[in-house]
Amino acid sequence: MTESITRRYASGPYGQVHLYESGTRGGNIRPLVCFHQSPLSGRTFDVLMRALAGERYLVAPDTPGYGQSDAPPEPLSIEGYAAAHGAVIDAMELGEVDVMGVHTGARIAVEFTRQHRDQVKHVVLVGAAVYTEEERAKQRAWTGAALQPTEGSDGSHLVGLWNNWAQFRGPGVTDAMIERYLSDSLRNRGNAAYVMKAVFAHDMGAALADLDQPILVFNVQDDIYDATARSADVMKNGRIVDLSPTGLWALETRTDEIVDLIRRHCDD
């Protein structure tokens, strides 16, 4: 039987926060709090949440300004997004938790952990880019062009958005998977660049080096593959699992393998 996912809203510091939840609270296994890539939403974790729902409680909030969560009045730093999530998670009174983040969500997960050092016990990241200055400039230019607001278009920008995602499809990725990413990107088009400014101002290397928690990093074949491999040089207590040639949809195409690795990493 496929485990179900429920959705609800909670009050956050910038309005309503939309949450995806699976599993049952309580029991002996810590909840897993999941932070998504931007400009996507918590449904990034749909398949993973269903796979783990029979054994632990999982929650994936939409970052403020993305998915169905209200936006802040102005762009936040990564630390600010982490604090906004923290306000909601604190109100849920979950106790000790493990955290997981993908790309932008990986940065948020790391900062959430720094802000909740005694509460977070294990960290799981998909993509943990430690940029060189050259990489940072290249990524800023590339994402800036891709996320520019469009008005009066003939629709050709939709093909561009599709291709921006499809270039990372890898083995086993269907058109429907890409369409979900595309639809999330369109939903938040107006403020899609907000969190990108925060990403390029964030020092992932210093943040990772500041953590004592065990860290598991999945490296997939995408635009930050080389920068993620560099995270091995700064983590005190971490390891990298290389999932190439799998791309961005690893949580959906290699679910069983990833779930097993998460269990072994977190269940102590």
Considering the protein shown, what is the CATH homologous superfamily?
Alpha/Beta hydrolase fold, catalytic domain
CATH class: Alpha Beta
Tally of helical runs? 11
Per DSSP E runs of 2 or more residues, the count of β-strands stands at 8
- The second-level CATH architecture is 3-Layer(aba) Sandwich
Brief overview, please?
This protein has helices at 46-52, 78-92, 104-115, 133-146, 156-166, 175-187, 194-201, 204-209, 225-229, 250-253, 255-266, and strands at 6-12, 15-22, 32-35, 58-61, 97-102, 120-126, 215-219, 238-242. With 268 residues, the chain is of the alpha/beta class. The chain is globular, with a radius of gyration of 17 Å.
Describe it.
With 268 residues, the chain is of the alpha/beta class. It has a single domain (6-266), classed as Alpha/Beta hydrolase fold, catalytic domain (Rossmann fold, 3-Layer(aba) Sandwich), CATH 3.40.50. Helix content is 40%, strand content 17%. It has 11 helices and 8 strands. The protein has an 8-stranded mixed beta sheet with strand order 1-2-4-3-5-6-7-8, with helices on both faces. The longest helix has 15 residues, at 78-92. It is globular and about 55 Å long. The chain starts with 5 loop residues before the first strand and ends with a helix. 43% of the residues are buried.
